[in-house]
Amino acid sequence: MAEGSKYLTSGFCESVLQSMHSFFLEGQFCDFKVKVEGKTFQIHKLVFASSSDYFKAMLSHDMIETRDECTELKGITLKGFEPILTYIYKGCLAVDIKNIQDVMAAATFLQIPGAIDLCTKFLKEELTFENAYDLLKIGEMFAISSLRDYYRNYLLKNFLKFVESETFLKTDSETLANYLSDDALVTTSESVLFHHCMRWYEHDMKNREPVAHSVFEKVRLSSDGWPLIHFAKEQDLFKTDKKCQELIEFHEQFMEKATKRYFLSDNDRTRVRSSRRTIIQIGGVMEPDENYDSFHDMITQPVNSLCGWNMNHYFHPDLKSWFPLGGLSNWIQRLSHQKFVEVNGHGLMIGGYEYHIADDTANKIAISDVRMFSPQHNFQFWDMPSLQHPRARHAAVYLNGFIYAIAGRDDKQVLKSVERLDCEAETWSYVRALPRKLYDHAAAVCEGKIYVSGGIHSIDGDAVKTVWCYDPAKNNWNKRQNLNCARAGHGMVCLEGHLYVCGGYNGQRDVSHNSGNLRCLVSVEMYDVKTNVWTKLTTMRQGIAFFEITVLDGRILVMGGVDTAGRLTQYMHEFNATKNKWTVFGELPRPLKNASCGAVVIKLTDTGCMEDETDEFVQRYTEMFDDHQLAHMSEQERLDRELAMRMMENFDPGDYLLDDDEDEDYDDEYGDMYYGDIGCVDDFGDLGVQLNNDEDED
């Protein structure tokens, strides 16, 4: 017999509850008594057993209270029980600062989870910096572990409000240092933290002087650079206290060793104060089109060939948007194929191609350049020691204080050499070469060893399945289990002790496309380093090669690339290894392949504009430092400084970005100044500077 239809009366449960409450108020159908501080309440067993685990257990067994149909609740006050009684019948809890401890005691004793949750919610909502001590004591009394965590997170997010309270000035040095060491602490700058730590110190100088260094060492002076370091150095405490003087020396050395900051930024003295990692994009291969990024692009960008892009961005995960990489957003150089290596929240771009444009054609050359990206000071790039051999279409990884550049191609041949940078000594040296020449391969570090997969052995060769493993302790390469599918131009990352390989191309032509592009792969496989076994996983949403790959927040991120039809893609996809599922993550700023992309730690702002993240103390200390420098300059140095400042004041990347309403006015306003024999633009972006052919070549 077919099952009949089911219908639901709206508000039925609420109606029954209201009826039970009415029966309670009128004393009807009551079958049990509860005594609290001498007062007796007529209740319903069924209602209390439904809400309270205490009553459910008591009424389910043959106990004296059950036989007598009465129980006395000792240790519970009327002030605490009456709100609970109303909650049991109505689901509404009346609680305030005066009765919260009594209500919480009653809810805990009677084991009513819903009431306990509401009491916890009330405590969280009522927490202030002034009453935190008392409310946290209540939380500890009733083992509410989440309350202290909630307060800590609230304080860290509102730290600049906390420092204005009396509680801040009374905080002990150990607790304050603990707060300041947390990457999740939200502040506009380290300068404002230093200012308020000085207030804290001056509030009780006599008792706090011996421990002051333990607080100030958690203020990341080098994040705000020389102005803050100079200001701190001028304070009496830092002139007289030896340990504070050592702090200044530490940060001065850190600033002076600019090219080693990525290596030294592994502690809470120097890290960027942020718990968020996000993606940056440096260069990449772009398609020729008329969507010019600047006036300079319009007169230099080739129209007949793929070319390196000279724009750099970072991704804001909350706003789901890309933003220019500060003052580094626009380069004169056009680069691609730089291998991105993340170290301590910084990024290193290794090797790749540099593009030179002539007669509407882009010619690329392999380079040996190595650059470090620092997220500090509104983003910076630093030139690192160059590779010993130019290489592109290579692989690069970081392992135990060394950066490895593995095989690839130069402008003439395929390479098998491997060189590594000693991050401490800042020197490159060769290690054991790969057994075979290789390019368009992928590499990743897992369990203290370097794994290299796939690639191509010769310029006209096909993709291979080979997997190599390098043991740095033995300086040798060994073969591991082959990939399930031959591939090159693919990606490989390590996630939770496993290697993941995806995409790429396999050297076979796709006859369905007249252009004869390489067939791109959708397959994904995972390698267990302990069992030496590859396992196939869910395929990608589309076949792509020459993309960038990284791990962000425990998920694998694939960015850009080229599809089988030869089209560059703008999409970013993420892979959830736990669910074995691919989803769309977002889009790159434009269709790109072989961009230098990776995850770094960036101090994100609500608007995405780094210029918004400042305060009066940064400005004040900067002005003081400028005055100090000026006072110690020679006359010639002052003139050079003024000239440089005038040139910088006249340059703004936005000033020469094309606007639909203004581009037709360029000819009239600037005339031949922008055309003539311009070969390039100098570092200050001064489009009026013309260089002759010799200077251009230099």
- Biggest β-sheet strands, sense, barrel: 8 strands, antiparallel
Query: How many E-type strands?
Result: 35
The number of distinct helices, counting runs of at least 4 residues, comes to 24
Q: Quick check: average pLDDT?
A: 86
Helix content bin: 25-40%
Low-confidence stretches: 653-698
How many domains? The number is: 4
Ends distance? 91 Å
Radius of gyration: 33 Å
Give me the CATH architecture of the largest domain, please.
6 Propeller
CATH class of the largest domain: Mainly Beta
CATH topology of the largest domain: the name is: Neuraminidase
CATH superfamily of the largest domain: Kelch-type beta propeller
* Helix/strand class: alpha+beta
What amount of the residues lies in strands?
25-35%
- How does the overall form come out from the CA principal axes? globular
Topology record:
Elements: H1 12-26, E1 32-36, E2 39-43, H2 45-51, H3 53-59, H4 64-68, E3 70-72, H5 78-90, H6 100-109, H7 113-126, H8 132-141, H9 145-157, H10 159-162, H11 166-170, H12 173-180, H13 190-203, H14 205-208, H15 212-216, H16 226-233, H17 236-240, H18 242-256, H19 261-264, E4 277-282, E5 285-286, H20 295-300, E6 307-316, E7 321-324, E8 330-336, E9 339-343, E10 346-350, E11 353-358, E12 361-366, E13 370-374, E14 380-383, E15 395-399, E16 402-409, E17 414-422, E18 427-431, E19 442-446, E20 449-453, E21 467-471, E22 476-480, E23 491-495, E24 498-502, E25 505-509, E26 518-520, E27 524-528, E28 533-537, E29 544-545, E30 548-552, E31 555-559, E32 562-563, E33 571-576, E34 581-587, E35 596-601, H21 616-631, H22 635-649, H23 666-670, H24 693-697
